[in-house]
């Protein structure tokens, strides 16, 4: 299994985010689950990659040339694809991944997860999407998902596609057990 992890290129202010990224990376590596990520050595990205590698897992990074050139590429990865654009990065990560997890992060993290989740709703893939809800980081977003559902912009079935967990083992168990719903408009 290969899991794409979307997360911050910074570590945030709460040290619990770094600890959680380390715990998830270690658990993925111990479970023989390979990491697909944005290829950077900085922030939570670098933390989760380092933890997977330290636990004996493989890490496949995908980084745009412009970011590699700023010396942000992680030097110790199992595989590193260098692509021309952010669009190519997202497409390559989606192609490689069997599942998607968002750790704490900013707008880029949300954009990547929301795109994967939307593609799942539309039936472009049948892969699970998850929030690693460390310290309740995504609680306000989950409230908004409830609002989207309540206002009729998201079906309850498609809201339930989004896996939420705050510990690595239940998160991975839910990814493995995922059964996708019928496609939107089917």
Q: From the helix content, strand content and strand pairing, which structural class follows?
A: alpha/beta
Distance between the termini: 28 Å
Number of domains: 1
Helix content: 40-55%
- Give a short account of the largest sheet: 7 strands, parallel
Major beta sheet, strand line-up? 4-3-2-1-5-6-7
Q: Explain this structure to me?
A:
The protein starts with a strand and ends in a 9-residue tail after the last helix. The chain has a single domain (2-176), classed as 3-Layer(aba) Sandwich (Rossmann fold). It is built from eight helices and seven strands. With 186 residues, it is α/β, with parallel strands linked by helices. Helix 5 (107-122) links the parallel strand 5 and strand 6 (129-132). The protein has a seven-stranded parallel β-sheet, with helices on both faces. Helix 1 (15-30) packs parallel to helix 2 (43-54). Belongs to the LOG family. This is Cytokinin riboside 5'-monophosphate phosphoribohydrolase. InterPro entries: LOG, LOG_fam. It comes from Marinobacter xestospongiae. It is an enzyme of class 3 (hydrolase).
